Predict the structure.
Amino acid sequence: MLKKRIQKLLSLFPGDAVLITSPKNRYYFSGFTGTEASLVLTNDAYYIFTDSRYHIQAKNEAKGFTLIDTAKTSAADFIREEGYRLVGFEEDTVSVEKFRTLSQKVPDAEWEGVSPLISGIRKIKDETEVAAITRAAEIADRAFSELLPQIVPGKTEQELALTLEFTMRKMGASGLSFDTIFASGVRSAMPHGVASDKKIEYGDFVTVDFGCVFHGYCSDMTRTVVVGKANEKQKEIYDIVLSAQTAALAAIRPGAVCKDIDAIARGIITDAGYGANFGHGLGHSLGLDIHELPSFSPRCEETLAAGMLMTDEPGIYIEGFGGVRIEDLVLVTEDGCQILSHTTKELIEL
Ligand code: ZN
Ligand code: ZN
């Protein structure tokens, strides 16, 4: 499976070798989870360069790679000794300083950025990736259903967020996709309101946007609930966001243009009079990173393809009142899409 990913990259890059140094891409191409290593990928062989702390791990994880001890030869030395002339590197993560060092160590090589090629390959998720993300989404669903009865007046956002995070870890997640957004009452008007020491109050809207990592892959889901009975205004806003969210979902299929999906949801919210209260894009792709390309934004001209993984997350945010966001994780399939978030989207009144 990983060999296919490497072959794809090498088939798109006409050089002698590609140097991979960023942790996410290193994991993507080799399976190595350690924090220090470089990969050199060529048509003849794959090499992993790391120090003695990681030798056993590299042998176990980076199957099909030749292990080279960096105490003897660095990746840059190797590239120079092999006489590679055109070498790919990740121009979006290699610092100016590191690039200067590389250029000095390998003066005869021409370096060419391959980051767009890699992000293009990573856009389409393979079976292993879909399985990991599906599992991350399942854990999030289960942890959220365990959390719901605990969202009661008097508890703080922080302690509830921690409970949710702890439950996901107990269920097998290795970490969080991002800092949990847990915003109640007027704070729910902040699209990225991370958990604070505010106590939950009766009548609060509570927006929880969270995700966990499983085998390196992120999940992402948002639900907004009401503590107690929802008032008319809360119901009105919730229904508009839900209509926008489901209308966009219905249009997600291969061939659809990203900005058109955004426009469907945005149109519904705008027609209802809340266009100014929906300031962010409708969604984003994700995988090893929580934000990947393409995105459902008013400017994204990319076309959806089977195997892409997207979020659909419209919202309405009213300062001084509160806000609603509803987010599902969605896999684009051959004939439409499959929703990986299974928590109900009916308004939950706790
Ligand atoms: Zn989210
Ligand atoms: Zn998201």
Summary: The chain is about 35% helix and 25% strand.
